[in-house]
Amino acid sequence: MTPPQPRFPDTQLELLAPARNVDIGIEAVNHGADAVYIGGPAFGARAGAGNELADIERLVRHAHRFDARIFATLNTILRDDELDDARRTAWALYDMGVDALIVQDMGLLELDLPPIQLHASTQTDIRTPEKARFLQDVGFSQIVLARELTLEQIRAIRAATDPARCVIEFFIHGALCVAYSGQCYISHAHTGRSANRGDCSQACRLPYNVTDQSGRIVAHQQHVLSMKDNDQSANLAALVDAGVRSFKIEGRYKDMGYVKNITAHYRLLLDEVLDARPDLARASSGRCSYGFTPDPQRNYNRGATDYFVNGRKADIGAFDAPTWAGLPLGHVLATARDSFELESEAQLANGDGLTYFDLQRNLVGFRANKVERLAQAASEPRLALWRVWPADGMARLKDLRAGTEISRNTDMAWDRLLEKKSAERRIGLWMSLRECADGLSLTVQDEDDYCASATLAQPFEPAKDPARAEAALREQLAKLGNTIFSAERIDIALARAWFLPAAAVNALRREAVERIEAARAAAWQRLPRAAAVEPPVPYPEDSLSYLANVFNHKARDFYARHGVKVIEAAYESHEELGEASLMITKHCVRYSLSLCPKQTAGVTGVAGTIRAEPLVLVNGSERLTLRFDCKPCEMHVVGRIKKNVLKQAEATPLQFYRTRPGA
After folding, report:
1. Domains in the chain, ordered, with CATH?
2. Locate the Peptidase U32 collagenase domain: which residues (predicted)?
């Protein structure tokens, strides 16, 4: 049998879902993911989301049944003494059928890697057509663009790369790092925990006072580096038109309910795009049905933003609180010593998590130990009156009073719904039963044009009730419940109605289905490893600062081979001891606080009075300087590495070229 020819890459849309562990990865596939990315036992950019190799192999087997793909993250920067372990891990992942490695460290490209497809991590900081084209030409088949890009910038990158050689991947949902990925060193400078090595301390979620150069407070205890969550639900068609083909959901630390819900949400949206675009196709097989209605607002989130896709906007930050307040529930009518009354349209349940903001705009959260429905509101039939008993009593609930708006960030009924089986994924199957020389032949063909047959060779008796016999036969053939298939059509063409024992029909169906699934498995092909362009293409620049994250000599050799003359070591090598940019971000605190000179241009009496002077962030004893580079419209968070961090054993002093050879 000839397997179906692979589709042209630029005609496929891939929904790429995260998995903290293998069970979540399996459910991501079941809920519609075309591919899943997951951490291996080490060297993934989420230190707390590693998985054993044997578990990943179980995920690979499940995904490949639907032609879905598994990508393993190997995307930290590596020390010289870690390279050989990383190489062995890469080979082990390849041997168990993993489809691609997501990498950041260019030193890996200098090793004896298996012929596995390579994807450039978002940590490689891909913002320009030149960088994208370079990564394509050195052998990356898929590149994850920076989250901060606009549609116009994505189109420019697509125009500079070859759709037949390189897939454009873009984040469409989840938490946002405020810094360009791979360009944040605050965590390492303050704690020794490196974001580039998968261990970020999340200083961006802390509250800060913002002061000007005179010490005047511009913002008080605001989370000015905390972003809302990414949500590109409304932009999928535009992203497709711009050249994106892989749509990535953030969340390798997220729980099962999040992955089920968000994957299903974007599966439905992408299917709408595909239905309107017959020139495009899914990147895997099967259709999903759901036992719930996907809703991204039901999961933990900090509010939604489409970030910079449609240009700069002021309202992209979650400045009041870096946590989730939840969905509005209702308002307090009255309080008592141990409970309060709440008016709401929603159904409440014991154990629900509720929140409100106190008078200082601090978010207060508590659990409802018990809820009781009191009555329907007389004035509004949609509203019901509830009594709520907080788990820790009323005394700690500061400023909770009549009129307080209450939200819910844990909905026990929703959580219980997603704890159960909540989706089925099935591949369409066409079945044809015919008479043959040996008896009866059942031929099955699936939606990908794989075929298989099985024969039932035994004598048959004519059916006493032909109509009933055919109905029973169709019913038995359609019983595909324990398989990955669903019967789309059943054709029965027999010379006359025969009485066929149910056990014989079941055995015939099972044999045909086993054979077609075996044919699918036999036809599985690895994604091709892209060959690097020869001779080696030059890197877009001839010098690299610590921002290039070169942390081992193999990475240094890679860049030297591609024409770079000056190569500085990564920030984690502790060679950059003075003030340095610890974070580079497209987010601008001045713009969000309406203090940007560009915002006041042309405003009479204001234009020229506001300048892009530095600001200072203060959190306890921590002080960071904000410097504004207005030409590219970027902000630098500037600081120094702490002395106690310099004493840590993790430091690996490295010195590459400091000056051009022969200078």
Report:
1. 9-176+230-298 (3.20.20.70), 178-226+542-554+568-663 (no CATH), 325-419 (2.40.10), 429-522 (no CATH)
2. 408-520
